[in-house]
Each structure stands twice: as C-alpha cells, then as structure tokens.
Amino acid sequence: MFTSLQNPLSFIGRALIALLFIPAGFAKIGGFAGTAGYIGSMGVPLPELAAAIAIVVELGLGILLLVGFQTRWAALGIAIFTFVITFIFHQYWGVPAEMVMSQKLNFFKNMAAVGGLLTVAAWGAGAWSVDAKLNK
Fold it and tell me: Which of 3, 51, 107, 135 keeps 20 to 30 A from 29, CA to CA?
C-alpha cells in the first residue's frame, strides 16, 4: 500500500517541512531590522549577517526543498541551520518557569524538523521533484 503512496507522501512531506521555513524567510525580509535586533539580543555576533543567512536558508533552501531541486543538499543545509539555531533561541533549560513549556515545545519541534530533514537528505526528494526530472 505505501509503495503506491511513496511519491505523493514524499512531496507532501517536503511541502509541509518547507511550510515551516519559506514564510519565516519572507517575514524576515519584511521585518529585517526587527529580526536583526532580536538575533543581536540573543548574543549572536553580526546580527545583520546572521539575519541575511537565515533568509537565504529559510527562503532559498526552503524553496529548493519544496520543488525538489538539489534536495539532499538543501535538506542537509536547513537541518544544520535549524539544529544550531535551536540551541541559541530555544534554551528551555535557562528561561523563567512560565516560558519553559513554550520553549521546550519549540526546541523539540525543531529537533523533529531536523529529523525529517535528515530523512529527506538520506533518501532524496522522490519522483515528484525537479531532481527526478533532471535525472531521467
């Protein structure tokens, strides 16, 4: 049963993961100064550069993931980015008690996204992708 669903499920999975990143990248463009300010407030050096990198990863690699072009590299890049930023922005172990639940939820949501991205990096985009069309 799942074999016949492999391609649509692979596409839907990529699209849902991309949905986490592409809108966030667009939002960072529209609110660049605020994004850079927030990044700086978390102690990240060169916050404007970090914000620009976040836009490239979330929007650029997110779109590549969605369409399935250079999918394994895009997924790996987003996974590494997400893994690193999660430990900077969702330190649930060091926040006031009233913030622990939301930060812990975001921490583990991000780790789950990293897991999904690593699976895409390992197995590729599937037949419903630009990668598959180019490899024919």
Answer: 107
